[in-house]
Amino acid sequence: DQQVKQNSPSLSVQEGRISILNCDYTNSMFDYFLWYKKYPAEGPTFLISISSIKDKNEDGRFTVFLNKSAKHLSLHIVPSQPGDSAVYFCAATSNTGKLIFGQGTTLQVKP
Amino acid sequence: EADIYQTPRYLVIGTGKKITLECSQTMGHDKMYWYQQDPGMELHLIHYSYGVNSTEKGDLSSESTVSRIRTEHFPLTLESARPSHTSQYLCASSVSYEQYFGPGTRLTVT
Asked: Which residues, in sequence order, are CB contacts of A85 under 8 Å at separation 6+?
């Protein structure tokens, strides 16, 4: 039973446009959500996070939105740059501290 | 940002060999983790530790073992490698919710 799902395996956008990556979860006990970026042959890099008491968190070009009623979060990247091309993982956790990851979405930003 | 190191980065080894994947961090984080990840799949937690002499199995069953004798060091050992162990192994550490990852070890068992 997959508790965190990223239903889009891949996404392609034009440079300068907005990238929207989506993530759904099933466990209502999750209270903290994170996004990671991963290049091939490297470890994931932490991007941005959001607590369940908020519905939006912004850091530069990256904004994460949380809709608790829909159990849905999204990562917006604007403007998208070719260097953003990577695999993006969302992750969720409760008070256990263990992260549950989605399968990842491969983002390609075309020049 | 955490400094966390993994060696080797790449390892090709024959079936039946014993291997140890090294992971070290310099941030003094109490919590450390090992994940296994295959292409196109999520990261699966296989071991974690919340401090020295504390280790627990993760959500994905694994034939590997770990030890935590020092805060900064969290090695993973496979006593007898098999082709099914071929994967990327990622080590992470944390002090709160955010986990910081090493570069990973790509293991191939022939």
From this structure: A107, A108, A109
